[in-house]
Amino acid sequence: MVIGILIALQVNNWNEDRKKLNRRTTITYSLVNDFKKDSLFLNSIILQVERDSTRLKSFEKRLNATSFIYDTIKKIFRYEFPFYVRPDYSFSNTTLISTISDNNDLYPQSLVDSMGVLLKLQRDFERTNTITVDKYFDLLNRTSSYPFENYFFNGSKALRDSVWEKTDSTQMLADFEQLADWKLAYSQIILVSGRDIQRFTEDLKMRLKNLENN
Q: How many CB atoms lie within 10 A of CB 104?
């Protein structure tokens, strides 16, 4: 009779362990899938910001190599400046947040701690981007008097030429310098933060996969 009870308890424990492992596998699959989405998302951002950073640094070389600074800056400002930024950064972290909050014993504490670090990196990234982009848009609004190319309303080239000819040269140079400096700083911040998150996410993804394979 005692042996029967022990066997029943062992079977029950085995069933509970199997349920726990199945639940962990489901969560791990969801986490890894989210990490893949985030990786694609960050890759697209990093590629865009790398292009912007390269262009801005090429502007610096051109300006250092010419004595016609005003004409060069006016051409860059009007036709070549990479104005676009992505304000819509967000991560697929619903499963990550719930896993951290559950306080269960599905994962080793070291993995849960790493999930918490990743979540902090993501939130810092989003917060930094929001602050930086808001400042950048403030600067863009201050330069709204310049008729840049390829915006929604496309009047005539003659109209835009007329406005550019009448711009205050000193003010235009100062506006360009401030906007270019801020955009380059923004690009560097996003590149460093984005790459850090990519590396950390990849490491965490491999650790989760190794856990499931053992």
A: 12
How far is Cα 63 from Cα 61, in angstroms, rounded to an integer? Answer: 5
Q: What is the mean pLDDT of residues 116-133?
A: 92
d(CA 49, CA 187): 6
- Structure confidence at residue 163 (pLDDT): 83
How many CB atoms are closer than 10 A to CB 94?
A: 10
The domain total for the chain is: 1
Task: Please compute the mean of the pLDDT values over residues 38-65 and round it to a whole number.
Answer: 92
Cβ burial of 31 (10 Å; 0-12, 13-18, 19+) is: buried
State the residue range of the domain holding 148: 2-213
Alpha carbon distance 198, 188 (integer Å): 15
Give per-residue pLDDT as tens, 64-75.
888 888 889 999
What is the C-alpha separation between 189 and 101, in angstroms, rounded?
A: 29
Mind giving me the DSSP string for 89-118?
-----HHHHHHHHH--SSS-HHHHHHHHHH
How many Å apart are CA 100 and CA 114, to the nearest integer?
10
Q: What is the pTM of this model?
A: 0.83
Which pLDDT belongs to residue 146?
Answer: 81
